[in-house]
């Protein structure tokens, strides 16, 4: 069985999703990529987390061909694949239907930058990508879901290195990171800042976003200037 170690890590990252309260039933998936082989290790589709094992993770190439595995890969595989192709420095992708983030995605709103918890991991608001057109949905749904994520960051002038997650309208959040573990971390942070932002607006409907100099201070303090200039 190939990629034994990466299988174990992807398995552990997937079973951490319900532990962090990010998923119900099978509403989420984690993958990782081995850049040398060009292979993706991903959660099998429709399998409950308590039935996951390292040996039932599915290995595919970036075009979706199953290299190793008895089960079908997650239905979101081609979205993960598009992100791996577009973002060469990521090593892991997570998709969930976490409740707070889905609320903002269904409302069609970016998650505003209201405070320092947000600033430590996301340089600016967390964008919501446009809905897919009927043609996109019928032609190549999962791949186009990746496309609108990539398009959104490009249109906002944001680097994937400093905004490691996007909401897909009417769907939910996708996050990424250098590793599957970091991608999960960003999913947890995104869900928490989504909840904080909702509470902020409930407590003060006229709440204003935090100033950019606070964003700079916190983001740079944690990630250093190189990551910050990835924004350019
Ligand atoms: O967005 C969806 C379905 O709406 C998917 O993300 C599922 O929630 C998980 O699918 P599998 O990974 O089990 O194929």
From TrEMBL:
Record field: catalytic activity: L-ribulose 5-phosphate = D-xylulose 5-phosphate
InterPro entries, A to Z: Aldolase_class_II_sugar_metab, Aldolase_II/adducin_N, Aldolase_II/adducin_N_sf
Record's keyword terms, sorted: Isomerase, Metal-binding, Zinc
EC number in record: 5.1.3.4
Start and end residues of each Class II aldolase/adducin N-terminal domain: 8-198
Domain of life: Bacteria
Swiss-Prot/TrEMBL cofactor(s): Zn(2+)
GO molecular function ontology, one term from the record: L-ribulose-phosphate 4-epimerase activity
TM region(s), chain numbering: none
Keyword Isomerase found: yes
Top-level enzyme category: isomerase
SMART domains linked: Aldolase_II (SM01007)
Oxidoreductase found in the keyword field: no
UniProt similarity note: Belongs to the aldolase class II family. AraD/FucA subfamily.
Protein name, entry field: L-ribulose-5-phosphate 4-epimerase
Organism listed in the record: Lactococcus muris
